[in-house]
TrEMBL record:
GO terms for cellular component: cytoplasm. Pfam families: Metallophos. GO terms for molecular function: phosphoprotein phosphatase activity. This is Calcineurin-like phosphoesterase. Residues 217-465 form the Calcineurin-like phosphoesterase domain. Signal peptide: none annotated.
């Protein structure tokens, strides 16, 4: 009996070991474990200073190995430096940190971080007298020389890890270290970059959007950027031979967005979902920073809602929204937690001059991801009844507040997944309808709620090569009385599909003229007639939906 128990225990233990090994190997490659286990957002606690940095490498073949140093002494930045691409290796950056008030005489703090093969003091002007300490992966640390240095603005108070040769650091007070970590990586692995914050966190003032002195306000809708960790791979680029045949998706996408920011000079950018191409973004934070940096360096406010791909990478919707909301010039909000979704909120744009009255309200709602009932309603999720109730209550409350505004107040709404009403072939539309409308199979009639609240325009993304504006009418026919314009943004990103008849990526703009209570829209192309406004039309005039097709 005893032998049988021992033998059974050994067999059971071996089976458990094999299962654990399989799960860890599978997760290392495909990330099958819940997002809460990964916890990819590093903690940056105020009041702490960093006293040491190192890299710990371990074997991913051993499921018992945590690749972790003594947790009582070291904090691990929860990002595998190989991003799961190493079959046999994992590595993590670890930092030692202390509260400033806990530092004692003799404690030294980190004043700077460099990465490279050579000692930074060798041959670099101004560094000859400095002493640098080496750490694994080519990290060099410069420690404080004097006790009072710990109060300096140069003391390192937080450290992060970003990925890709195109990594950027948009956060105030942060600096991206020039060289990538020296890891023995494969050709497929991403470059690993260290970013540090020196001094205490910078206070971010929330920007208040305002109509320009000429009474106008321009919105750029950036739909479906599909950014990756790293350069990304183009899908269906047009023209295919552009740039000698090489096409890095994120480079071309961001160049396009940046060009239009400089030429159109919008007052606000609405990112209407699928900013991040989840399956190619094992570090979604690096992808987020790339689009945010475009707006931050130009001092242009921006607001985000999510699509069905954003949270398929390393970050949940909630974590991603927290990250984006913390960045300069971001107007993004998670919204109330009493209704479904992350990112149900509104933005008030103030009237020109010194007025504190709202001239324009923008409603942004989360359309979620995939159908929760695939057997009955295939495809995509839908706006939930409690979201519609929130919208109705909010719109009613704001309309009461807007009565004090002396001009006609205007409203717009932005979503990611189109409403079922977008698929009505009996209605007029301006632009291209090149693919089927992938709206939810279940209709919760948010369209009707928009009409009842007198919202004249809603715009979405999701279907990359549909980029029309469709006029919804009272009786659902081309001749009916106008009641709502339903627009698409037109996909801008080369990381997502676009191969329908030589489709050129594009961006939609809305210009609001508060003097005439008018909304005009048009599109701009990435290739071809790049300096021309495409399908320009007035869709609202005198505050009313109009048909000028």
């Amino acid at each position: 009996m005893t032998r049988r128990i021992v033998r059974t225990s050994i067999q059971l233990g071996s089976l458990i070991f094999i299962i654990l090994l399989f799960v860890f190997l599978l997760d290392n490659r495909y990330r099958v474990l819940p997002a809460t286990i990964h916890n990819h957002l590093p903690a940056h606690h105020p009041g702490f200073v960093i006293t040491d940095v190192t890299v710990k490498k371990c074997s991913s073949l051993n499921p018992i190995s945590s690749c972790r140093l003594d947790p009582d002494k070291w904090h691990r930045v929860e990002k595998d430096l190989y991003l799961g691409s190493g079959w046999v290796s994992k590595a993590y950056v670890h930092i030692k940190r202390k509260k400033e008030e806990e530092l004692v005489e003799g404690d030294k703090v980190i004043m700077d971080v460099r990465v490279g093969k050579l000692d930074p003091a060798m041959g670099e002007k101004g560094q000859e007298s400095e002493k640098w300490e080496s750490r694994p992966a080519g990290i060099w640390l410069k420690r404080s020389a004097k006790h009072h240095d710990r109060d300096s603005k140069s003391v390192v108070t937080a450290l992060d890890v970003l990925f890709g040769p195109d990594a950027v650091e948009p956060r105030s007070g942060w600096r991206l270290i020039e060289n990538s970590l020296l890891l023995d990586t494969s050709a497929e692995a991403q470059e690993v970059r260290i970013s540090i914050r020196q001094g205490q966190p910078h206070k971010i003032e929330k920007h208040v959007p305002k109509v320009r002195d000429d009474g106008r306000f321009k919105i750029m809708q950036a739909a479906d950027l599909h950014l990756s960790t790293g350069l990304g791979t183009c899908r269906d680029p047009e023209p295919k031979g552009h740039n000698g045949g090489r096409c890095d998706a994120d480079v071309r996408t961001l160049d396009f967005v940046g060009k239009l920011l400089d030429e159109e000079k919008p007052d606000l950018v609405i990112l209407s979902g699928d900013q991040v191409n989840g399956e190619t973004a094992p570090d979604a934070q690096s992808a987020v920073f790339k689009f945010a940096e475009l707006f931050i360096k130009r001092s242009i406010p921006y607001a985000v809602i999510f699509g069905n791909h954003d949270d398929e990478g390393s970050l949940t919707r909630s974590s991603m929204m927290s990250l984006i909301a913390s960045l300069p010039y971001s107007l993004s909000e998670a919204g109330t937690n009493t209704i479904d979704g992350i990112g149900n909120y509104y933005i008030e744009v103030l009237a020109r001059g010194k007025s504190q009255h709202s001239a324009l309200t923008l409603y942004l709602l989360d359309t979620h991801g995939y159908s929760p009932d695939e057997r009955q309603f295939k495809g995509y999720d839908w706006i939930k009844p409690n979201q519609i109730k929130w919208f109705e209550d909010t719109a009613k409350s704001l309309k009461t507040a807007h009565k004090h505004y002396t001009h006609i107040h205007l409203d717009m709404a932005f979503i990611h997944i189109p409403l079922p009403e977008y698929s009505n072939r009996n209605l007029k539309f301006v632009g291209n309808w090149k693919e089927g409308v992938t709206a939810p199979g279940f209709n919760t009639h948010f369209h009707d709620a928009l009409v009842a609240a007198n919202i004249p325009v809603v715009s979405c993304g999701h279907d990359h090569v549909n980029e029309y504006c469709m006029l919804s009418t009272e009786d659902g026919t081309k001749e009916g009385h106008p009641k709502l314009w339903m627009c698409y943004g037109g996909a801008a990103g080369f990381g997502g599909y676009g191969g329908y008849g030589g489709y050129h990526r594009r961006m939609r703009f809305f210009e609001i003229d508060t003097n005439e209570a008018r909304i005009t829209t048009w599109k701009r192309l990435e290739w071809g007639e790049t300096n021309k406004r495409i399908d320009e039309q007035i869709i609202v005039d005198g505050g009313n939906v109009v048909d000028r097709t």
